[in-house]
Design goal:
This protein has about 100 residues and is mostly beta strands. The chain is built from no helices and ten strands. It has one domain: Rieske [2Fe-2S] iron-sulphur domain (Rieske Iron-sulfur Protein, 3-layer Sandwich). A four-stranded antiparallel beta sheet has the order 2-3-4-8, with no helix packed on it. A three-stranded antiparallel beta sheet has the order 1-10-9, with no helix packed on it. The protein has a three-stranded antiparallel beta sheet with strand order 5-6-7, with no helix packed on it. The protein is globular.
């Protein structure tokens, strides 16, 4: 059974921005809000060199890592070709204006 953790009101995450929360294993999880108000959550480490994805630039449903410009698909956590690698995605939902994260 999936347990959901209340994170914050949607308005606390800026469009094309993120918010970092502590995950169940004390690893950081970045929750992103795209320009079209879609929500995504991934482990806050780029698969390349561990850069903080939460500090990257959100464009469409991707984020560009601030360290070496790798692009990561927010829907899957996969690096965009020609790069290879993946960061763990997490389920996230919006209910009555509140963001919830699956833990």
């Amino acid at each position: 059974m999936i347990k959901w953790k209340r994170i914050c009101p949607l308005t606390d995450i800026p469009q094309r921005g993120s918010r970092v929360v502590s995950g169940p294993d004390h690893d950081d999880i970045a929750i992103f809000r795209s320009g079209d108000d879609q929500l995504f959550a991934v482990h806050d480490k780029c698969p390349h060199k561990g850069g903080p994805l939460s500090q990257g630039i959100v464009h469409g449903h991707q984020v560009t890592c601030p360290l070496h410009s790798w692009k990561i698909e927010l829907t899957s956590g996969n690096a965009v070709a020609p790069d290879v690698g993946c960061t763990q995605p997490f389920a996230v939902r919006l209910e009555d204006g509140v963001v919830w994260l699956a833990i």
